[in-house]
Amino acid sequence: MESQQHKKLHELSQLCTEIRPDDGLTPLQWKKQHTSRKRSQQNVKRDRHIAAVRDTLDSIIASDPNYDGLQIETIDATRPASLCVVITAHGLLPEQAAAVEQFLQANEGSLRAVLAQELHRKRTPHLRFCVIGT
Q: What does the pLDDT read at residue 4?
């Protein structure tokens, strides 16, 4: 049954530039058939979590004078229990960027503690930093 309906949809899409109700298919059905599949629930949760981590880290960086001139570019969650945070440091040489990266890694525990408190999480991901001097 579904394969026949799928064939009908395919034929209609070949013949018509715009589907109308008198074609035997409502526009809502047409739209449902041709929209991309929704993201899985796990991806939605992961994306929300990454956005919350980004907002929290942004607020920490903005409020602490030790992190002056740093800006978060991307957060990558390639491994389940780890986040790679790419940070740009404006006005720093590569050697200074390496020192800032070491400073961030040394303070990872305190940053994770603040993240756990802000996000109301028992377990927080490990953070890896990659500082790029510009």
A: 73
